[in-house]
Design brief:
355 residues, alpha+beta, Rieske Iron-sulfur Protein, Naphthalene 1,2-dioxygenase Alpha Subunit, Chain A, domain 1, 2 domains, seven-stranded antiparallel beta sheet, 17 strands, 29% strand, globular
């Protein structure tokens, strides 16, 4: 990333304001990439399920009798009635409309009066599944059956996360908060993917959590990797024990293109962001904080509150202002600041996102 770069400009305004471009993204990019669905804590026992929406499709995850986490389109193969809503537990999946009944594998088990139908193709009927992977307890889905596995998309990320958060496979959500932002999802992600603005706009983060002068972001496959050192201990806004782990004094982030990020705060505290596009100028960011078994943890709770009251509020103001500016006919895309040395005051990761 240290080569001299030609002048590259920000995206044309239509990329973040045109409904047709969002429709194209939903029909292509957003159904052919790995997207976050939920956490295994939501499906701890066989028969546990939760329903969710993604890219205009209704889906549900469940754990089958062999312990495998599966995802299905949420529609009966008889006459399309929605099978489940919310979350719950069921030993079989039963359609509320005509009681067609499915195994937890999705295979049709029974239906009223189907035996009376000559040559009824029962063995051929199964719920339509969606490609699913569990990544350190986080459930991801991909509508593209031919997509490469997550470890190919995001090389090294699984191992690195395990090293930065030794207890990651024991973690469960302590807090999930959905925060609406009146901006295009790419505006929000571009803001997340540079720290050029951090010292100016995020005083608490830049002076009480990290050392901005050590901040760097580099591509790693389809992962954008953020790394920096923690602030001096006497300036940290919360306590950490540097001796507890090799990475206790680091902040690190793994942005998994296109809509999810793991963040590890100094002290090995896990946070996550999940972007959900809704309209050309509307998205939701689902922010999570995690603790062992989801139990109350004072430092994690303190960080969650601090993050909401500082960085989150500050970023909402910034991205919504950008979106308003993009609607102006006077906006002309400006050149990105591509410092050959990268570092905190460079926008080289915005170029990577555009590519």
């Amino acid at each position: 990333m240290n080569e001299t770069s030609p002048i590259i400009r920000s995206l044309e305004r239509s990329y973040c304001t045109d409904p047709e471009i969002l429709a194209t993204e939903r029909a292509g990019l957003l159904i052919r990439t790995w997207r976050f669905a939920g956490h295994v804590n939501q499906v701890t026992k066989p028969g546990d399920y939760f329903a969710f929406e993604m890219s205009g499709e209704n889906l549900f995850c469940l754990r089958d009798r062999d312990g495998e986490v599966r995802t299905f389109f949420n529609g009966c193969q008889h006459r399309a009635h929605q099978l489940v809503s919310g979350s719950g537990h069921a030993s079989l999946v039963v359609c509320p409309y005509h009681s067609w009944t499915y195994e937890l594998t999705g295979q049709l088990r029974a239906g009223p009066n189907i035996r009376s139908v000559p040559d009824f193709p029962k063995s051929e009927i199964c719920l339509t599944s969606v490609r699913t992977e569990v990544f350190h307890g986080f459930i991801f889905v991909n509508f593209d059956d031919a997509a490469a596995p997550m470890d190919d998309w995001f090389p090294g990320a699984r191992e690195e996360l395990g090293a930065f958060v030794p207890d990651i496979d024991r973690l469960a959500p302590l807090e999930w908060v959905e925060i609406p932002e009146k901006c295009n999802w790419k505006v929000s992600i571009e803001n997340y993917s540079e720290c050029y603005h951090c010292s100016i706009n995020h005083k608490t983060f830049a002076t009480g959590v990290i050392k901005p002068e050590t901040y760097d972001i580099q591509p790693q496959g389809y992962c954008l990797r953020h790394t920096t050192e923690c602030q001096n201990l006497d300036q940290m806004t919360y306590p950490i024990e540097l001796e507890s782990n090799d990475f206790a004094g680091s902040y690190s982030s793994w942005f998994l293109w296109p809509t999810f990020s793991f963040q590890v705060y100094p002290g090995n505290r896990l946070n996550s962001y999940h972007w959900r596009p809704h309209g050309p100028d509307e998205c939701t960011v689902w922010r999570g904080w995690y603790s062992i078994d989801g139990e109350e943890e004072p430092v994690v709770r303190q960080l969650a509150v601090q993050d909401r009251e500082t960085t989150v509020e500050e970023d909402i103001y910034l991205v919504e202002s950008v979106q308003r500016g993009l609607k102006s006919k006077g906006y002309v895309p400006g050149p990105l600041v591509l410092d050959p040395g990268c570092g905190v005051n460079s926008e080289h990761l915005i170029r990577a996102l555009q590519q």
